[in-house]
Design brief:
Blueprint lengths: L1 H8 L6 H12 L3 H23 L2 H18 L9 H20 L20 H11 L4 H12 L4 H8 L3 H24 L3
Helix pairs in contact: 1-9, 2-3, 3-4, 3-5, 3-7, 4-5, 7-9, 8-9
């Protein structure tokens, strides 16, 4: 479990040049490049979508729709050195469209199965992760998912969420501290 929390605290790097190349090849109809792009960033798109929508089924739908749009719009992509930002902007729009359609601003009640597909964790650990993540605010959860799952740097998250960098940093560190404190408390209580 502590290993999972440490993974949340680390950043995963997506090579922008490689992603740019895969998008360019996708625009030319190279299906294997699209498959590689999909495998490389699916978790990032899903993680971001889940942080916004709170329901795995909705996040899966948005992830699928996002890749359909990437495939359809790869030819119009202009590289600015941040292909993952372009991709997650597509996901962000789709998430907001989904929320508008549902007219249901999410709550923690809809968050029950957020991490149900983490195959490295036992069912008890999954329950603990869900419980810990539910302690976070929506902003904290989004920042954690963007950083740990999607590999965004804090400055990029600040730009993406239109928040000051200092706010993103403080919310991130506060969220990690909340998760670790709650985990340690649960361990002491024998949960």
């Amino acid at each position: 479990m502590l290993q999972f929390l440490n993974v949340l605290a680390e950043s995963f790097d997506h090579d922008p040049a490689r992603l740019d190349k895969l998008i360019a090849e996708t625009a030319l109809g190279n299906e294997s490049a699209f498959e590689e792009l999909y495998r490389s960033i699916k978790a990032s798109v899903y993680g971001y979508s889940l942080s916004v929508l709170k329901r795995p089924h909705d996040a899966e739908d948005v992830t699928h729709d996002c890749f359909v749009r990437i495939y359809a719009n790869a030819g119009s992509y202009v590289s600015h050195g941040k292909p993952l930002a372009w991709i997650l902007t597509i996901a962000k729009r789709l998430c907001f469209d989904r929320l508008s359609e549902q007219k249901n601003l999410t709550s923690l009640d809809n968050c029950e199965n957020d991490f149900s597909d983490l195959s490295l964790l036992s069912s008890d650990e999954l329950t603990a992760v869900r419980s810990l993540i539910s302690l976070l605010s929506d902003d904290e959860r989004s920042i954690i998912m963007l950083h740990a799952v999607s590999g965004f740097r804090h400055r990029e998250i600040a730009e993406f969420l239109s928040l000051p960098l200092s706010t993103v940093l403080s919310k991130y560190h506060r969220a990690i501290k909340k998760l670790k404190t709650a985990y340690i408390q649960d361990e002491r209580n024998g949960k």
